[in-house]
Design goal:
The chain is α+β, with helices and mostly antiparallel strands. 21% of the residues lie in helices and 42% in strands.
Length: 133
């Protein structure tokens, strides 16, 4: 038997193991961790946001966006599916039929490319701003 054969096998197994370790993706960051980095804690779920006027928004990820309707109020909107427009929008709007923002309404994003996305809202949560955040 050739003595180089075991060395080749050991080398090949070492290479496969190194590739397998390198291809593992890091653990995914939870929504709570993402919110904490932005300085928020997720509060109770609400069904509607009355008297809303969107002064600003911050995308969190492909399904979540923080809206600032004014008066130190912050809400997290989560969409039913991925809404890629949240990450690359220049305009954020809502389609609502009753004049208040509800968990039955839709987000409308107008991407820089000109594409318009419509994303159904799944849940709305109040957010608490963390001191110093």
């Amino acid at each position: 038997m050739n003595s180089t054969m075991p060395k080749v096998v050991v080398w090949a197994l070492t290479l496969l193991l190194a590739c397998a370790c390198a291809s593992q993706s890091p653990p995914e960051t939870t929504l709570e961790e993402k919110l904490a980095k932005l300085g928020y804690i997720k509060g109770p779920q609400v069904r509607r946001v009355n008297n809303f006027q969107i002064n600003a928004w911050t995308p969190v990820d492909r399904r979540n966006v923080i809206i600032f309707p004014g008066a130190s109020r912050y809400f997290l909107l989560t969409t039913k599916n991925f809404c890629d427009g949240l990450q690359e929008t220049r305009e954020l709007a809502f389609s609502t039929t009753i004049g208040v923002l509800t968990d039955k309404d839709q987000l409308l994003t107008h991407r820089y490319s000109g594409h318009l996305d419509t994303c159904s809202i799944d849940t709305i949560h109040e957010l608490e701003k963390v001191q110093g955040g």
